[in-house]
Amino acid sequence: MSTIFRLPRIAPVAAVSFGVFTLGLDLASVPLDSITGSLGPGGQLADWVTTAVGVVPAVAVGTLLAARRPRNPIGWILLTIFLLAAAPVSDYAILDYRMHHGTLPLGWVAVTLVSAWPIFLVLIAILLWVFPDGQLPSGRWRRVSVVLVASGVVLGLAASAKGVVAIARHDVRINVSGNLTSPSTDALAVLPRVLVLGLLVSGLTWLVVQVPRYRRSGGERREQLKWLYSGAIVFVFSFFIPGQVANNLIGPFGAAALPVCIGVAVLKYKLYAIDRIVSRVISYAVVTAMLAGVFAGLVLLTTHVLPGHSPVAVAASTLGAAALFNPLRKRVQRAVDRRFNRARFNAEAVVAAFTVRLRGTVDLDVVQGDLVDAVHQTFEPAHVSVWLAPTGQHQATPLGAAARQGSSLHRKCGLDDETARWAGRTVGGFSQDGRFR
Looking at the domain assignment, is residue 436 inside a domain? Predict the structure, then answer.
């Protein structure tokens, strides 16, 4: 009987149940916003879109992590964070205590969760500390992290007690925004400020820990940290966009970026692609902005300066922008890769230099040494061996077969498809143990 209730068996069911409950509760904020008159700009449709964009990916990632990695607390923490952050507790508190005078069921739960935002902040700090293995840092920073996390949990629970105190006193006061305004003691008023100060100290300490941690990491762990840092940067900057409309539109994407990046890093799915993703996003954003400027300039030039009909001018401007796209993309992509996708740029430079040296070299030993050096600099394999056929027994490897051999082992060597196919064509293919031949 005990084997039936093992963690691997009940974890997927519990994770899916928790995820469905969180998603349903978060999406319920839209109809409650409509009832309480708290809809944002754009009406109910815009509210549905922004809520779904911010909540659905995050809850899906949290559910997947909790089901696939049940012993890692990151998935469960993500679900709890979005349960506290996106649940319509303020709307329900307004509906209950301002519109129905406290007669609705579970109003006390809404009041308790309204004042539980300190726990939400503490969970974000814990999430960063336990990434990616679900454990606090080892070594000299372990005691510091344990003290910070334990202190944060205690302060978070204490700072969230305002709702419990208001319910115990039967003095629940909710303003038009859904916030609790019941009077509290001086200690309860000071605790949130102390908690925020402690979380700032915790965040700065975490940043200090990340510098040597990133420098010592390599391979898969470094790629995991890159995913975390990328998602955190997008998450932070999405909330500093000027203008309420722009923030309401882009903010949900930033809220979803961090949990998605964390999910990719923890599940270790195609981690090698982060540098390429960053470089492609930046390059296409730059190209789009430049082409938009060129298109607008051409339209203004042809319609206001030069004589001509407006439809013809727009068509000519469109053709001109389309003709500029590919050359402009190549130039911008190379400039961006030089900064954000350095490994790929360096590999291309090494290959180009090796090709130039190969054309002017006749000594076979020199060619062999240059080949081994180029392979080490571009692919960094564990072992490299060069096999030379005896005189009179040279046999060229078919181009298609060599390319397929190189592509089939791109995961083992950590290469992308394009680079692995180049290795297959240039070197003559991989052996099955990952060695060059």
Answer: no
The answer to whether residues 344 and 337 touch, using CB atoms and an 8 Å cutoff, is yes
- Shortest CA distance to 411 belongs to which of 280, 272, 277, 278? 272
- In this structure, what are the phi and psi dihedrals at residue 133, rounded to the nearest 5 degrees? -95, 0
Could you tell me what percent of the chain has a pLDDT over 90? 7
* Paired strand residues for 430: 436
Per-residue pLDDT, averaged over 100-118, amounts to 87
For residues 331 and 354, membership in a common domain is answered with no
Q: Would 48 be classed as within a structural domain?
A: yes
Cα 89 to the center of its chain, rounded Å: 27
Q: Is residue 179 domain-shared with residue 79, that is, in the same domain? A: yes
pLDDT of the residue at 337: 67
Contact present, 29 and 88 (Cβ < 8 Å): yes
Nearest to 299 by CA among 278, 315, 281, 280: 315
Position 414 in a domain? yes
* Res 382: pLDDT: 57
- Torsion angle, alpha carbons of 26, 32, 38, 44, to 10: 80
Handedness of CA 25, 31, 33, 36 (dihedral sign): negative
Assess whether 266 and 311 both reside in one domain.
Answer: no
Residue 311 CA to residue 420 CA, distance in Å, equals: 47
Distance of CA 270 to the CA centre of its chain: 13
C-alpha of 6 from chain center = 32
The structure's pTM equals 0.63
Same domain, yes or no: 310 and 291: yes
Least confident span in 40-44, 111-115, 420-424: 420-424
Compare 296 and 81 and report the one with higher pLDDT. 81
- Does residue 308 form part of some domain? yes
Query: How many domains is the chain built from?
Result: 3
- R_g of the chain computed on alpha carbons: 29
More confident residue, 434 or 81: 81
The pLDDT tens digits for 244-291 are 655 666 777 878 888 888 888 888 765 545 556 666 667 777 777 777
Q: What is the pLDDT of residue 409?
A: 40
Displacement of CA 165 from its chain's centroid (Å):
38
Residues 140 and 284 in one domain: no
DSSP string over 276-295:
HHHHHHHHHHHHHHHHHHHH
129-152 pLDDT per residue, tens: 998 888 888 878 888 889 989 999
Q: Which alpha helices (DSSP H) does 238-273 contain, by range?
A: 244-267
Question: Which structural domain range is residue 358 located in?
Answer: 343-427
